[in-house]
Design brief:
The structure is a homodimer of 608-residue chains. Chain A is of the alpha+beta class and 608 residues long. Chain A contains 26 helices and 17 strands.
C-alpha cells in the first residue's frame, strides 16, 4: 500500500549466513523506522533473561526513511541491543556517515546475531554481504581499524567499528564511525562479544528521493535551519561547548562527583577557550551545522594533542566530576576514549566516583597503584583513565561501570556511585532541573539525557509550555511529551541538536516523513502516537527483564544532600521522587508499579 | 489521496441558501466522520457564549463512512449542537434509517444554521435541497408529522422531525425518526428555535461499497454478530429490558429519586413481563438484532396502549424514580414522550424529583394542581408528564429540566435535582458503579451513560481488564479507554449495544473503516487517537464556554448519603470524588482544573 519498502539484512555470525528480508507492512506502519524498528525487533526476537554478552543477544542497526535522501541532519543511525552495563533495553545513536551508507546499501535494518569463533568483520558491497576475517584488525584502535579497512576497501567505505576497550570487555565501550561514536551502554562490548570488529559498507548506489514535493519540503527545512537564530550563528561555531557557561550559570554543572553545581574557574573550559584551540570543523553526512570542533592543544605538556571534540557532556565528565578545569585534559581524554572506543561520560563519571571514594578513605593509594586522587588532579585522572582502558588494578574494577564497581568495592561505595540502573549520569544536576531529571530515572536505559531532553528547563524554552525547574508538581506531562517526541524524532532520524531547536518545525518534519514513506496521513499526532508506542514497548522489554518501580530511582545523593555552590540552584534537593513518579506513571497510563496497563497497550495497538 | 470524499450540505434558514461543500482533507483525516465531524465543525463555527436557542446556534447532522454501505448496525446518525439544557457541547445519536438515507442522498454532514421566520422543513431529493413551508406541520406530533410528510413525498422518505414538546421550548425535547429518537439534551428544542419542523430525505441513489475486500470484512462482521453468545440469543429477544433484573440484582436501580438501589416488586417490569406484551419487533436500517419491542398493554385502564419500547433507561425513568412498578405506565409514558418528542430519561427523572420535593414539603398540592405525588402514584406521574408537555403549572417549571427548575423553586430543591451540568442521570446508581459513574461527571455533555459505558462494572466484562466497581483508586485509565473507544466507535457509527459486546471485534471494525475510507493505515490505535482527539476537542469547547473542574461534580446525594436497600451495593457512597477526578485528569493529561495541557493538545494535533 505504501511505496516505502524498508529492507532488513540479517547476519548470523554463528552460522555465517547473511539473509535479506522484507520488513512486514504492519511493522512498517506501526514503527516507521529507526528507533521503532530497533525496539520492535529486539522485543520480538530476544528471550528474556539472556546474557547481554552471550550469543543470544543481538545488535540491531537501524536508520530512518530520511537517511541518505538529501534531507539535512536526518542520517543518524541507531544500534539497539540489551546493554551489558544496565541489563535493560538500550539504543545508541551515531552520527558521521554510516547511516547514509546503510541507505545507499539498501538496508534500513541490519541485525547481527550469534557470535563468531574468531575476529571477523562484515563487508556489505554492491548489495552483497560477506563475513570476512578480522584477525589483523583485532587489537587495533578505532582510527587504525578504519584506516586499515579503507586501505582494503577504499576511502569511500563507511565503517562502524570497535576499539580495544570493547575487546577487553569494558562494559561501557562504544562503536565508532569516523570520529563519532555510539558511545553509551556498552554496545561496542556486545559487538566484541560476537567477535565482530567492524561493519564496512561500500556504497553501491546513491538513493535520491527526487519527488518535487519532497524537494520543496527539503528546501523549506534548509531555510528553517539557516534562519534559526541560534543554530548557525552560535551552535555551528562551537557546538555544545556553549553549554558549559550556561550550565555553570544555572548551577547545574556537576562538580566533585555531583556535590556542587558550579566549577571554580569554569571559564577555563568555556566555549571561548575551545574556540581559541579550534583548527577546523567537521560535520555529519548531510548537515550544514558542522558542530564538530577540530581542536589542537597549543601549549603545556599535552601540546600538539588533537581531537574532534569534546562535546559538552565529555567536557563535564572530564572536568567537574573530579574538580579540574584543565582544558588540555578534556581534549586528551576525548581523543583517547575515541581511539579506545570508550564512552567518555561513563569513563569521566567513574573517575569522579573514584576521586570521592579516595577522599572518603574507601579506597587508598594502595588501591590506586600510587595515584593521588585528590580533587583537581587531572594528571591522576588521565592515568586512571588509562588504567581503565588497560583493565589494570583499580581500572579493572571501574571497567565494570560504577554500579558493579561499587558492589565489588563495598564499604558504602554505592552511596557515591552516580548512576541510574547502572548508567552513569549526564552532566546536568537533576536537583536543579527536576523534570529533565525525571528522564534520568524513567528512561528505559538508565540515566540518559537524550531520550527526552528538558529544553524547557535548560534553555527556558516554552515549548510546549514553560516549566518551573524546581517544582515537583505539574509537569509530568511535559516529560512524557519530550520523551514521546524524541522517540518520534528518532524515526527520522533527526539529530537531537537541531530537533531540540525545533528545526525543522515538527509539522514540516512530519510532512517529510509522510512524503518519503508514502503514508500521506502521517501527521504530528501520528509521530506522537508512534513515539508513545515505542516508549511503551521499551518499557515492556524492561518489565519482562524484571525492572520496575524500584529501579526508577535516583542515586541517594540527590534526595539526601542539597546541591551546594550552585548559584541560583543553591540548596536544591529532590524532596519527593516517589510523588513525581506517581505523577509520571499516571500521565503515562501505567499502574502504580510502573507497568503499562492493558488499556494503554490496547490503545497503542500493542495488545489486542 | 483517499477515495473517501465526504460531502457537506449547509442550509441557512435565515437566508434560505443551500450550499454543498467538500470537507477539507485535513478534517477528513483527523476526524474521519460522525462524531468527529460534529465536534470539529461545532468548535470551529460556533462563537463562545451564544444562546443555544438563538439563530447563532447550529445543528450538525452527521454520519460515518460505514452508514448505508451494507455493514451491520453502523448507520446511526448524530446531531451535534450546543445544548439548551446544559449549555455544553452535545451530541445525540439516532437509529432507524435517517443515517442510511443521508448516505443515499450523498451527504455525510448537514449543517443547519440561522433561523426561519416561519415553520419550514428541509427537503433533500435527487441531490437537491429545498426549504419548504411547514406551516401545516407545526403543532403535529411526531407520528402525524412523519405520516403527513410521507403522504406528500412518498413512503420511502426518511424524516427527522420534532414534536409539540420542542415547539413549546421544553428544554429536553428530542428529534424523532420513525420511532427512534435523538432524545437527550434538547436538540429538538434547538431545531424548534430555528422553526425547523423536519428534514425529509427522499433517497436519490443507493450507494453500495462493492469491493471484494469490504464484502469479506462485512461477512466476517455478520458472522461475529450471529455467533455472539448474548446478542442474538438474548438481547435480540427483549432488547435492553434484560437490564432491569441485572440492575436490581446489583442494587443499582435508582429508586425514590436515587435514594435506594432496588425497586420493590421490580419483577413486574422485568424482561419476562415485557416479553409477555410483545407483538413484534423493529430494527434500525441494516441491523439483524431487532432490539425494538413492539408492545401492547393487554389489560387495565391503559389496555390497548402500544409503544415501540420502552428501553431500559425509559423503564427506569418511569418506575424506580417515583417508586412505581406499573408496566403499563412505562409503555404509555414512552409512547407519549415519543409523540411529543420528549426525552424519556429527563422527563422521568424530573417526575421523581418532583415526588421527592412533595415528600419534603418543598412543593405542595397547591403547586401540583392537586396531584398527590406520593411514592408509587403512577397515575399522578402520568398526569404530571402531561403537565410538562403542556407547560401547565408545575409542568411549566419542570419543562426547564431539574437544574433550572430547582433554581426557580428554591427552598433547597437543588439538593434533590439529580443531574450533572443540567443533564439528568442515567438509570444506574453511580455509588455502586463508581467508574461508570465517573463518566457522568466527566462527560462533555453532563450525566450520560453512553459516552464511555462501564461494561467492566455493569457486565463484569474484563475488557480490557476487570474493574472493582466500589474502588476509588486505580481505574481512571479504563474510564479514559471507554470514552476514547466510544468516540472512535462513533466515527463508524456503530450502535452502542453491539459495540459494547465487542461486535464486531475492534480490529475488524477498524479494517472496515480502513477499507471504506481508503486510509489503509487506519488501525485500532488510530481509532483511539481520533477518539482522544475528539474527546479533547469536546472538552475545549466546554472550557471555552466557562466549564471546568467545578462543574465536574455529582449531585450532593451521592457524596453524602449511603445507598440504601441496595443488596450488594448497600451502603455505597462516593467518598472522594475529587481524588477520582485527580486521577482522571492525570491520565487524560489535563491540568488540575481539568483543562487539556499544551503538550496534550500538541500531541493530538489540536495545537501547533
Amino acid at each position: 500500500m505504501s511505496n516505502y519498502r524498508p529492507r532488513l539484512l540479517r547476519v548470523n555470525l554463528s552460522t555465517g549466513a547473511c539473509q535479506e528480508e522484507d520488513i512486514p507492512e504492519k511493522i512498517v506502519i506501526d514503527f516507521i523506522g529507526g528507533r521503532g524498528f530497533g525496539i520492535k525487533y529486539l522485543y520480538d526476537e530476544l528471550q528474556p533473561g539472556i546474557d547481554p554478552l552471550g550469543p543470544d543477544n543481538k545488535l540491531i542497526f537501524s536508520i530512518g526513511p530520511l537517511a541518505g535522501v538529501g534531507a539535512l541532519s536526518t542520517s543518524r543511525w541507531l544500534v539497539t541491543s540489551k546493554s551489558p552495563l544496565t541489563g535493560t533495553y538500550f539504543r545508541g545513536s551515531g552520527g558521521a556517515n554510516f547511516g547514509a551508507w546503510m541507505r545507499f546499501a539498501g538496508f534500513d535494518v541490519i541485525i547481527v546475531e550469534g557470535a563468531a569463533k574468531k575476529p571477523v568483520y562484515i563487508l556489505i558491497e554492491d548489495g552483497r554481504c560477506e563475513i570476512k576475517d578480522g584477525g589483523n584488525l583485532w587489537g587495533k584502535n578505532t582510527i587504525e581499524t578504519q584506516k586499515l579497512l579503507k586501505e582494503t576497501h577504499g576511502n569511500q567505505a563507511s565503517i562502524a567499528c570497535i576499539g580495544p576497550g570493547a575487546e577487553r570487555f569494558i562494559r561501557f565501550a562504544g562503536i565508532m564511525n569516523e570520529r563519532r561514536g555510539v558511545g553509551r551502554g556498552g554496545l561496542g562490548t556486545v559487538m566484541a562479544s560476537k567477535k565482530l570488529k567492524a561493519i564496512t559498507i561500500k556504497p553501491a548506489r546513491k538513493t535520491k528521493v527526487t519527488s518535487k514535493e519532497f524537494e520543496a519540503l527539503r528546501r523549506e527545512a534548509v531555510a528553517a535551519l539557516r534562519e534559526h537564530p541560534f543554530l548557525m550563528p552560535v551552535f555551528s561555531k562551537g557546538g555544545s561547548t556553549v553549554s558549559v557557561g550556561l550550565s555553570n550559570a544555572m548551577g547545574l554543572y556537576p562538580t566533585r562527583n555531583f556535590r556542587e553545581g558550579t566549577l571554580g574557574g569554569w571559564e577555563e573550559v568555556s566555549a571561548e577557550r575551545y574556540a581559541a584551540l579550534k583548527e577546523g570543523d567537521n560535520a555529519c553526512y548531510g548537515c550544514i551545522v558542522h558542530c564538530g570542533n577540530l581542536l589542537r592543544v597549543k601549549e603545556g605538556p599535552y601540546a600538539g594533542a588533537t581531537s574532534e571534540g569534546p562535546d559538552y557532556e565529555t567536557i563535564g565528565a572530564f572536568t567537574g566530576t573530579f574538580a579540574s578545569n584543565d582544558i588540555a585534559t578534556t581534549i586528551v581524554a576525548d581523543s583517547f576514549c575515541d581511539q579506545m572506543g570508550l564512552d567518555t561520560m561513563t569513563a569521566g563519571n567513574s573517575i569522579g566516583f573514584a576521586f570521592e571514594l579516595y577522599e572518603k578513605g574507601i579506597i587508598t593509594k594502595e588501591d590506586t597503584g600510587g595515584l593521588e586522587l585528590t580533587w583537581g588532579n587531572h594528571e591522576a585522572a588521565l592515568e586512571l583513565l588509562k588504567m581503565i582502558a588497560n583493565r589494570e588494578g583499580l581500572g579493572d574494577i571501574l571497567a565494570e561501570g560504577t554500579k558493579m564497581a561499587a558492589e565489588r568495592i563495598g564499604k558504602g561505595a554505592a552511596d557515591y556511585a552516580m548512576h541510574v540502573k547502572g548508567l552513569e549520569l549526564p552532566l546536568y544536576d537533576p536537583r536543579g532541573a527536576k523534570w529533565h531529571g525525571l528522564n534520568y530515572i524513567t528512561s528505559p536505559m538508565g540515566a540518559n539525557h537524550n531520550l527526552g531532553y528538558g529544553i524547557q528547563e535548560m534553555f527556558n524554552n516554552p515549548y510546549p509550555r514553560p516549566v518551573d525547574r524546581f517544582a515537583e508538581e505539574g509537569y509530568a506531562g511535559v516529560v512524557k511529551f519530550n520523551q514521546d517526541l524524541t522517540a518520534g524524532i528518532e524515526l527520522g532520524i533527526l539529530c537531537t541538536f537541531v530537533s531540540t531547536s525545533q528545526v525543522p518545525p515538527l509539522p514540516l518534519f512530519c510532512k517529510m516523513l509522510a512524503s518519503v514513506t508514502d503514508i500521506p496521513q502521517f501527521s504530528v499526532s501520528s509521530l506522537f502516537l508512534v513515539g508513545e508506542r515505542i516508549w511503551n514497548l521499551e518499557r515492556l522489554f524492561n518489565t519482562r527483564e524484571g525492572f520496575g518501580r524500584k529501579d526508577d530511582a535516583y542515586p541517594k545523593r540527590f534526595t539526601t544532600e542539597p546541591l551546594k555552590k550552585a548559584g541560583p540552584s543553591e540548596g536544591a534537593i529532590i524532596r519527593n521522587p516517589e510523588g513525581m513518579l506517581d505523577q509520571y506513571y499516571a500521565v503515562r497510563g501505567w499502574d502504580h508499579e510502573g507497568v503499562p496497563t492493558a488499556e494503554k497497550l490496547m490503545s497503542l495497538g500493542l495488545k489486542e
